[in-house]
Write a structure and sequence with these properties.
This protein has 86 residues and is an alpha+beta fold. The chain has one domain. 29% of the residues lie in helices and 36% in strands. The protein is built from 2 helices and 5 strands. The chain has a 5-stranded antiparallel beta sheet, with helices on one face. Strand 1 and strand 2 form a beta hairpin. The chain is globular. The mean pLDDT is 84.
């Protein structure tokens, strides 16, 4: 299967930072990464100031800008897929 590189990014203070690049076609690795990110955000949210809780976000975007789509995570909605890249 052809690799599908994706960027895992986090926003804790108003700007996006790269955490890692991974192959979304590797289902095992992708599942581990997404579950780990959920746990990380729960811990960060529990210890964040109210101001920081408003900007604490994670997203997965294709590493290739020609590939459309992205995923975002929020505590309320969990993982949500959107059609456009932001």
């Amino acid at each position: 299967m052809t690799p599908l590189p994706a960027r895992l990014e986090i926003n804790t203070s108003g700007s996006w930072a790269l955490l890692c690049i991974f192959d979304m076609n590797d289902k095992t690795a992708t599942n581990v990464i997404l579950r780990t990110v959920e746990r990380l955000l729960l811990v960060l949210h529990a210890h964040a100031t109210p101001r920081r809780k408003g900007v604490l976000r994670v997203r997965v975007v294709p590493a290739d800008p020609r590939v459309r789509g992205r995923m975002g995570y929020s505590l309320e909605k969990r993982w949500e897929v959107t059609a456009e890249r932001a």
